[in-house]
Amino acid sequence: MELFLSQHLAEGQELTEKEFLELLEKQQSLACRDKALVYLARREHTAFELRLKLQGKGFTTEQISWALTYLKDKNYLSELRYARSMIESRQRKNPEGRAMLSRRLASKGVNRNDAEQALDELFSEVRTSEYVMKAYAMVSKTVEPDLVLMKLQKKGFTRYEIKRAMEASEDETL
After folding, report:
1. What's the rounded Cα separation, in Å, for the pair 55 and 154?
2. Residue 135: which of 115, 167, 157 has the closest Cα?
3. How far is it, in rounded angstroms, from Cα 8 to Cα 108?
4. Percent of all residues in the chain with a pLDDT value above 70, rounded to a whole number
5. Which of 42, 64, 69, 153 is least crowded, fewest Cβ atoms below 10 Å from its Cβ?
6. What is the 3-state secondary structure (H, E, C) of 48-90?
7. CA 145, CA 93: separation in Å to the nearest integer?
8. Mean pLDDT, rounded, of the chain
């Protein structure tokens, strides 16, 4: 309806085949945008994720590009906001190091600048120690003590971050 009102069409107005095809294309682009908004209403997404989902729904590359540009222009789609949200969610459930999260963000199509900005915001020295200690508490329940360091490193924490967190923890218990 939005499209037909914006084109000032009247009921019963005849269209040429070219006009009809142009209207159809515009309507499908709006449908693509609306489907992307439905996805974004559920959670933040990257442009890469939305592109894959919309392709799966049969939208054309042009329709998807138009919809993504519209969403970015309106700030409905933000890689930075996605990165922050994803990092915060992962750290609540299953803390990981900066390196691992950087790889995860890259695999979701987040550009390097937005990923680095979000990581910088959410990985202060204090927070990193908190993430390590939370991961340590979880890991130490499931693996032998001599394997904890290796498991934390697999989660993307550096030896330095692990050592610093352990020292801070010891200082707090004294």
Report:
1. 34
2. 157
3. 41
4. 91
5. 42
6. HHHHHHHHHCCCCHHHHHHHHHHHHHCCCCCHHHHHHHHHHHH
7. 22
8. 90
**Confidence at residue 112, expressed as pLDDT on a 0 to 100 scale:** 95
| Between 120 and 145, residue with greater pLDDT | 120
Whether residue 101 contacts residue 156, with contact meaning beta carbons closer than 8 Å, is answered with yes
Q: Measured between alpha carbons, how far is 100 from 157 in angstroms, rounded to an integer?
A: 8
CB 67, CB 57: distance < 8 Å:
no
The CA angle 74-80-82, to the nearest 5 degrees, is 90
Q: Which residue in the block uniquely carries the two structure tokens 């050592």?
A: 163
Give the number of residues written for the chain.
174
Interatomic CA distance for residues 62 and 137, integer angstroms: 49
Alpha-helical runs (H) found in the chain: 2-6, 17-42, 47-56, 61-73, 79-93, 98-107, 112-122, 125-139, 148-154, 159-173
Query: Is there a contact between 80 and 61 (Cβ–Cβ < 8 Å)?
Result: no
Task: Enter the tokens of residue 158.
Answer: 């550096």
Per-residue pLDDT tens digits for 110-141: 999 999 999 999 999 889 999 999 999 999 89
